[in-house]
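Give me the fold.
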Amino acid sequence: MVDILKDFFQFLKQAPSPWHAAHEGVQRLKKAGFHPLEEESHWHLQAEGKYFVQRGGSFIAFTLPKKAPSQALVAASHTDSPCLKIKPHAEFRSHTMNLFRVEAYGGPLLSTWFDRDLALAGQVYVDTGKALEGHLLFAQDYPMTIPSLAIHLQEKKEGVPIQYLNKQEHLCPLIGLSEKEQNSLETILKSHIKYSSLLGFDLYLVPTQAPSFLGASQEFIASYRLDNLSTSHSILMGLTQAKASPKDTLRMAVFWNHEEIGSHSREGAASPFLEEVIKRICLALHITEEDFLRLKHQSLCLSLDVAHGFHPNFKDRYDPQDHPLLGGGLIIKQNANLLYASTAHSTAVITKLCKENKIP
């Protein structure tokens, strides 16, 4: 278990953004003998082969059985996390200070972003003078911070300070001091990438604090991006270390981007990415349309994510009889309005598997 957690910490360090997570994931797949596939190329697949295909910050990996598959077992996670995203025309100057404009990506807990070391991470597209190039960036050497307002200047209610947060005004990270206008973003980028002009970017603020253990017995993990690199890492380890697929089962691992903002993108779970990959596998293996449809309806997909553990300081925020406990094992999420996909049948399948493998 210690070795697994050390490897998880390393995965977290290498994956500050969805595109870094996808890059780290496919590098691990390559080391495990998986072969890359390109969406724009013809696919030539072999029985018992191991493959992956990447689409931006998303990627899908799979292992083929000895014969044509009749079912697929799919485990899915996501590579993005709630954060603050740098706006397209981000930099501005206020008196002697340079700052970036940001916007919330997903639903970050805003109060936790103040007074900590932050850095830019994401993807950048540039013109080198010869070609358009895409690059990953993690600028830890240019730390910045979002300073909170001094307690003496905050409004008070019954003597208790209340800080009202305006996303537009109060979340701008402080880059540095300057007596004149300057392009700090260009300074940061050009220290990492050689280019003639900047064409586009998806850059986020990310905490630079390394993951660590907490607790008297080191039973807790403290880190950014536990949602949802924790299950991404688990799925990746499971697929790369698993024995050969059963004779008729297609094993698949899916890592989506943009889950935190609704999944409605070409890289998200609402896209046809997964279905297209399964369809192309069937085409490459000369599986008929009817058998493709039969395979879909004999398959199972698990969406693996994190859940809110019981908070002992805010007991009133939880169902008094039914709340997740830290260290209490896996959780099957259910909702009467089907905001989660769990059904009685899928719950039964997972519960049976957990009992057979002594998983709490």
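The chain has seven helices and 16 strands.
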